[in-house]
């Protein structure tokens, strides 16, 4: 229980501290010449936040696979095990990126403005119009040069195995004409979800950044076929 309280304190305290620096960072960001440099600068604070959360929870992260660090926008697609997926991925992925996140996150104090600065997009799963707007906003963000990450399972698996992928989010990559980078993450559910989020235990998480899927794949394959291909690659990586 102490570890959980300590980690929550780090999340809230560091978020509050970061928010006080946000206006200064926004001004500094605007002086940078490219979108990639601007996003990288803003993401530095998010990476510090993620690192402190992982340290406070005694979580180590092992990253393997492809190093995606150029300035071409991509859509990351990751499986979704647990609550710790977010700080782990912020820590593990070199490229700055925003999340396609559920609308409920918007209500968390301090977090909304940072989500916006990271070019995240909200989705209200109960509203079909919101899904269409999410795709439109995602395409616009990628075309502007930002990177996005989606969890196509929609919900945390909580360590119960890979769930079915919703292929709709792939419309973002298809319409924007960007590569897709699959990510396999394992070990986060054992930190909290195993105990119904009432406890927190130390853990070791593995993040595998898989070979990018080129944008041209949509010339010969449907959204569902691409979704099944990416899911199979992630599943193979998780069981390797």
UniProtKB/TrEMBL annotation:
<keyword id="KW-0443">Lipid metabolism</keyword>
<dbReference type="GO" id="GO:0003841">
    <property type="term" value="F:1-acylglycerol-3-phosphate O-acyltransferase activity"/>
</dbReference>
<keyword id="KW-0808">Transferase</keyword>
<dbReference type="Pfam" id="PF01553">
    <property type="entry name" value="Acyltransferase"/>
</dbReference>
<keyword id="KW-0594">Phospholipid biosynthesis</keyword>
<dbReference type="InterPro" id="IPR004552">
    <property type="entry name" value="AGP_acyltrans"/>
</dbReference>
<feature type="domain" description="Phospholipid/glycerol acyltransferase">
    <location>
        <begin position="74"/>
        <end position="188"/>
    </location>
</feature>
<comment type="pathway">
    <text>Lipid metabolism.</text>
</comment>
<keyword id="KW-0012">Acyltransferase</keyword>
<dbReference type="GO" id="GO:0006654">
    <property type="term" value="P:phosphatidic acid biosynthetic process"/>
</dbReference>
<dbReference type="GO" id="GO:0016020">
    <property type="term" value="C:membrane"/>
</dbReference>
<keyword id="KW-1208">Phospholipid metabolism</keyword>
<dbReference type="InterPro" id="IPR002123">
    <property type="entry name" value="Plipid/glycerol_acylTrfase"/>
</dbReference>
<comment type="similarity">
    <text>Belongs to the 1-acyl-sn-glycerol-3-phosphate acyltransferase family.</text>
</comment>
<keyword id="KW-0444">Lipid biosynthesis</keyword>
<protein>
    <recommendedName>
        <fullName>1-acyl-sn-glycerol-3-phosphate acyltransferase</fullName>
        <ecNumber>2.3.1.51</ecNumber>
    </recommendedName>
</protein>
């Amino acid at each position: 229980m102490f570890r959980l309280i300590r980690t929550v304190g780090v999340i809230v305290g560091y978020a509050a501290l970061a928010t006080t620096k946000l206006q200064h960072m926004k001004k500094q960001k605007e002086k940078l010449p490219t979108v990639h440099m601007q996003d990288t600068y803003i993401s530095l604070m998010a990476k510090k936040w993620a690192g402190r959360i992982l340290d406070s929870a005694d979580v180590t992260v092992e990253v393997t696979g492809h190093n995606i660090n150029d300035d071409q926008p991509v859509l990351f697609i990751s499986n979704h095990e647990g609550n710790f997926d977010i700080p782990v991925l912020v820590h593990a992925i070199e490229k700055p990126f925003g999340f396609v996140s559920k609308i409920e996150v918007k209500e968390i104090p301090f977090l909304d403005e940072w989500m916006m600065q990271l070019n995240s997009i909200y989705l209200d799963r109960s509203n079909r119009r919101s899904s269409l707007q999410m795709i439109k906003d995602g395409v616009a963000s990628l075309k502007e040069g930002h990177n996005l990450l989606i969890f196509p399972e929609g919900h945390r698996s909580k360590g119960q195995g890979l769930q079915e992928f919703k292929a709709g989010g792939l419309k973002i990559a298809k319409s924007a004409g960007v590569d897709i980078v699959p990510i396999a993450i394992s070990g986060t559910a054992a930190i909290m979800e195993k105990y119904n989020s009432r406890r927190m235990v130390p853990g070791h998480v593995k993040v595998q950044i898989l070979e990018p899927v080129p944008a041209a794949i949509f010339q010969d394959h449907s959204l569902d076929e691409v979704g099944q291909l990416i899911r199979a690659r992630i599943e193979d990586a998780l069981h390797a």
